[in-house]
Specification:
homodimer; alpha+beta; 4-stranded antiparallel sheet; 8 helices; DNA-binding
DNA sequence: CGCGACGTTGATTTGCCTCAACGATTGTGG
DNA sequence: CCACAATCGTTGAGGCAAATCAACGTCGCG
């Protein structure tokens, strides 16, 4: 249960056994069933969440009622509205389980306490925030300068196997195109 | 020269006179002439920059040779490749002056030193990073879910008066459309 | 079995691009 | 200070990428 998290952290920082014990105490396990919500738009996000099993989507609904998917999260990814978590502002995202999920969560006091006991975690979360920022910048560029075909191919490279787990119309909502059009693109590329 | 920076900081954190003195010592003034570059793609960004006068653009060039503008920066804004600055990775951006500029800059050692002497600056820069992240997320949504008309109207609300300072084709590169098409949009909305 | 959720396909429309030509400004060197 | 060249913005015609609307097929599931 915690081993995936420890492996994940170890990619960026090195941990002693003692620190691993502190870490496992700081993160609380949680289960979520398919179609349950981790967060609703307008709520304040009180936890950051690491996914150890399952798949979720973070999406917003604009004033025209259209859903746009900010992020898919599968095993070994983080999910949450970081801005809301850090500032206490109401979240602009919904986060919903697309499969039954196993999660590990830490809340704000838990994180502050962890920073005191394992200071290198500050470094880790700064890296996470930076990566989220970069990923977002890259998506701006890709949305502006690539065709739907190119974005689709980049998507299946970034999220391999996710096509088998997530319905097509959700992927379309991530790519910013209609399900019909994604269906045609997929047909064109089937068998690569 | 420094008063704009102090006013800017004071919006987020409160400063004593002593801290203001430390701050003005930490930031170094710099001038840049129109068409000069603050940063080239591939370089490591060694400074974060606050604009006290003038206007710049941060843009990237993709493999098709197209320019895309990540950000305009005018008085009272920050500009730089934060990712490169924080990680030491080569920058993916060019930053170029669109007018003669007056800037205030701080480098990495200067910032670390400032954090020690004025710890509340940590809080300030965390807020700046978060805001940059949020702005980027909003641009993803707007690029995916809005028409060019809507993005144009949102743009002139976000950057009032900038139309008088920046050529149309640069604004088109920011919005992700062709100059010709922006010209038609503008015609449609002239006189609001 | 029958219903709802999901994916596909066709016909049509529209938002935006491309290419090309032409004014209006700006600026620069002689 | 003028002449000429860049630079920039506008306009028109035509084309393509992607949306829309509508119909139908298929599967999983209560």
């Amino acid at each position: 249960m915690y081993t995936l998290l420890i492996q994940h952290l170890s990619k960026h920082i090195s941990l002693t056994n003692e620190e691993i014990i502190l870490l496992t105490a700081a993160f609380k396990p949680r289960r979520l069933k398919k179609k349950e919500f981790l967060l609703h738009q307008g709520e304040v996000s009180r936890q950051e969440t690491f996914v150890t099993q399952g798949c979720l989507r973070a999406f917003s609904v604009n004033d025209k009622g259209e859903e746009h998917i900010a992020q898919f999260a599968v095993e070994d990814w983080w999910v949450g509205d970081m801005y809301s978590f850090l500032t206490g502002a109401p979240s602009r995202l919904y986060i919903e389980a697309l499969e039954d999920c196993q999660l590990l969560q830490i809340d704000r006091p838990g994180l502050e306490d962890l920073y005191l006991r394992v200071p290198k975690m500050e470094r880790f979360f700064r890296i996470i925030i930076q990566n989220a920022f970069i990923a977002s910048q890259n998506r701006v560029l890709s949305a502006m300068s690539q065709t739907a075909d190119e974005r689709y191919l980049a998507f299946i490279r970034k999220y391999p196997n996710i096509e088998q787990r997530v319905p097509l119309y959700q992927i379309a909502a991530y790519l910013g195109i209609t399900p019909e059009f994604l269906s045609r693109i997929r047909k064109k590329f089937q068998g690569k």
